[in-house]
UniProtKB/TrEMBL annotation:
Domain of life (superkingdom): Bacteria
Domain HTH cro/C1-type: 8-61
Family annotation (Gene3D superfamilies): lambda repressor-like DNA-binding domains
Keywords: DNA-binding
Keyword DNA-binding: yes
Record InterPro entries: Cro/C1-type_HTH, Lambda_DNA-bd_dom_sf
Keyword set includes DNA-binding: yes
Protein name as catalogued: DNA-binding transcriptional regulator, XRE family
Gene Ontology molecular function terms on file: DNA binding
Amino acid sequence: MKIIYNKLWKLLIDKNMNKVQLRDAADISSNSVAKLGKNEHVRMDVLLKIAEALDCKVEDLFETIREEDER
């Protein structure tokens, strides 16, 4: 499974926020924001902090997709 954070970026646009404002509002590290930007896995507590800061559910931040089997 692959995780995609496009929902998060769309939510930030709707709330007129940038990544720096998100980092400050959610009290998360720049490294975590960088991982999100690369669609890499982050800890659940980071996602919970973001959801709380944006007043949304965790599932509103990302979606998962199946990776095609490489044979």
